[in-house]
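Hey,

Quick one before I head out. I ran the complex with zinc ion overnight. Inputs first:
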Amino acid sequence: MILMLFGPPGVGKGTQANRLTQYYRCEKFSMGDILREEVAIQSESGKKAESHMIQGVLVPDTLIFEIVDSFLIENKANGILFDGFPRNLNQAINLNTSLSRLNLRLNLALEMDLDEREISARLLNRRYCPVCNRLYNLVSNPPRKDEVCDQCKKPLIKREDDTETVIQKRMQVYQEETAPLTKYYKSLNCYQKVPAIGSEDDVFNNIVQVINAHNLKK
Ligand SMILES: [Zn+2]
């Protein structure tokens, strides 16, 4: 099975992607992780990617799809979960071409859906410890003592970009980028919205239910 998971910033996508990968024993494709790995082992594509990253420019799609194609060939037998990739319509179309070439197709594009107000409430309650970088949420995952790290006993800090204005801007960018993706995957008949309200476990169960309802083979 080949799945794609996407959702707005702050929705908890990373956590769910990791849990799903473990649960279905499939391979996770996260562009950021894979680029870092390729660079670390200094593979051919890693070296090329690094030269772009050093210059601070985007890694071009041709190189990205060299990496995608070899990932597909290597991991197609295990099932793949695309975590936040493709990011735009162009990449989605290219991915579809790559999959077709291997006689594969994307079974489900799952969008984690959460009310904008709920997202900003979550992000506004995020805090981190400046010493050990541990993350807290004053509502869902509070420290034992008010706004102080459990471990280091240092006062917690709010990320500078977790402000109402920045969050709204990030949401707007997300909507603009993903609206064409949503439309495209609807046209391919593989788009599914999953409610992302509730606890981490609730959301995980929602996603698993949707996936299992499709009776996908590994
Ligand atoms: Zn700490």
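DSSP finds eight helices and seven strands in the chain.

Talk tomorrow,
K.
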